[in-house]
Amino acid sequence: MRDIRGDLQDRAKLIEEQISSTQSQFDKFIEKVKVEHRDKLEGLKSDLDNIHVVMKTEDKLQSEATASEQLGQQPQSQQRTSNVLQRKMSALSMR
C-alpha cells in the first residue's frame, strides 16, 4: 500500500491557506460594513438634530403667534413661521 501522508499534509496545508484567505476577506468585509454603518448612523443623527432644531424653532414661533393673537394683534408671525420653516427644510434637504 502506498503512503499518502505527504499528499494529505499538502492538502491540509492548502485548505489551511484557503481558510486563512477566506477569514481575511471576511474580516475586511466586516470592517467595511462597520464603517458604512457608522457613517450612516452619524448622518441620521445629524438629520435628527436638525429636525429637533426646526421643531424648536417652530414651537417658538408658534408660541409667539399665539401670544400675538391673545393680545388682539393680527399675527404676521404665522407667515414668518412658514417662511422660516421652508428655508430650514430647504437647507436640510440640500445636505
Topology:
Blueprint: H1 5-70, H2 77-93
Helix pairs in contact: 1-2
Description:
The protein has 95 residues and is mostly helical. It contains two helices and no strands. It has one domain. The N and C termini lie far apart (74 Å).
Write a brief structural summary.
This protein is mainly α and 95 residues long. Helix content is 87%, strand content 0%.
The gross shape turns out to be rod-shaped
**Structural class, judged by helices and strands?**
mainly alpha
**What is the ordering of alpha helices and beta strands?**
HH
Mean pLDDT: 85
How much of the sequence lies in strands comes to under 5%
Spans with pLDDT under 50 lasting ≥5 residues?
A: none
Instruction: Tell me the domain tally.
Output: 1
Task: List key phrases describing it.
rod-shaped; mainly alpha; 95 residues
